[in-house]
Amino acid sequence: MFYKALFNINIHHGYFLDSGEDKFLPIEVDDTELPDIEKEKALIPYNVHDYLKVIPTQKTQRTCRNHRMLIRPHKQGFRVLVETQESGEKFMPIIPFDDDAVLTFEVHAKDAYFHNYTDLIDISENRCYLFSNIVPEDQIETFESIFENSGGLIDERFLLKAPTTRELLKNIAAEDAAINTTIIEQFSITNVIELIEADETLTELQKEGEIEKALNKLIQEKKKKGVVGHIRMHIKGDDDNNLLEFDDTDPDNIIQYTLETTPEFTLSFINKKTFWRYISVSDNATLTTNSTKWSTKNGFIEIKTEDFDPDGLDPADTNPEDYVFPNPTVKAVKKEDDDYYSEIFI
């Protein structure tokens, strides 16, 4: 018996891995990339579990128990292993999977300032990110599966539309409810939807509206608790992006094998860029940079006189050469219109 990896996921973040303006993973055309040796050094202290937690759903926990699977965290992410038996040069899962088997994990931000340094959709929107080997039917034009985008920049290519987000959370809740054969929580979304659907005083259109409201409320509750999105891996994915090899030579006896090369994916959060607004307490002067700067935990970004223009100075005759410009922390970030500002008191 051998435990073989079904898949491995690394989760990176530019805020923790960049060094000043030198990027661990370049985002823009003129970005300077860290040398490989510096990337290796950056990963030594890095631990994704310092700011993020990945939680398997109840259904996934049961699937793991039923199929002798292990979820093993490591500093960059986690891997899922399955117990197998040797068959020639290949390895078969001890307990075969159903074709529709799926493993789902909620991705939670643990850090209260996560959204201050991470470039994500605004928390007020009823949309979440999905990392999966199946593309939602209504997003084929814009969405990428985790196999297609294994380089992993977390941007709109992984972002669900609002209706698809609602459908995803509804399905996940139904999967968890199906294994709770005792009592469904009175206020669970599954129970709420059942009550709405059974309400004979409502028209079908009204029922749809009430269900949409309930699911939007659930999305906001989860986002307030730090949920960013979901990792959802199907045993059989789109375009043969499967987690197992299937030998269907005999249709009545399809044999499953672990893949020769373990699927490995890297998801990379993009750090936020903000305007830097310096507030001088001693003389009531405000100096705002004329372009956005990367948020980064490590290294130092030098601010020069040419980083300001008259529109960013208050009063207008303020001389930037009279001040020293430290880098901001992530604790003071404000949104004004569609722009973000890091405030630094000097």
Instruction: Figure out the total of helices.
Output: 7
The description of the largest β-sheet is: 6 strands, mixed
The end-to-end span amounts to: 63 Å
Rg: 24 Å
Q: Quick one: how many beta strands?
A: 19
Class derived from helix and strand content: alpha+beta
Strand content: 25-35%
Low-confidence stretches: none
Topology as a string of helices (H) and strands (E): EHEEHEHEEEEHEHHHEEEEEEEEEE
Report mean pLDDT, rounded to a whole number: 92
Q: Outline, from the CA principal axes? A: globular
Q: Any idea how many domains?
A: 2
Helix content: 10-25%
What does the secondary structure layout of this molecule look like, with pairings?
Elements: E1 2-13, H1 14-17, E2 22-23, E3 32-33, H2 36-43, E4 52-56, H3 58-66, E5 69-74, E6 77-87, E7 90-93, E8 102-109, H4 114-117, E9 129-132, H5 162-179, H6 189-198, H7 204-224, E10 227-234, E11 244-247, E12 255-258, E13 264-269, E14 273-280, E15 285-288, E16 293-294, E17 313-314, E18 333-336, E19 339-345
Parallel strand pairs: 1-13, 2-3, 9-10, 14-19
Antiparallel strand pairs: 1-6, 4-8, 5-6, 6-7, 8-10, 11-12, 14-15, 14-16, 15-17, 18-19
Helix pairs in contact: 5-7, 6-7
Organism: Dokdonia ponticola
Protein name: DUF4747 family protein
Which features would summarize this protein structure in a list?
single chain; 346 residues; alpha+beta; 2 domains; six-stranded mixed sheet; five-stranded mixed sheet; 7 helices; 19 strands; 21% helix; DUF4747 family protein
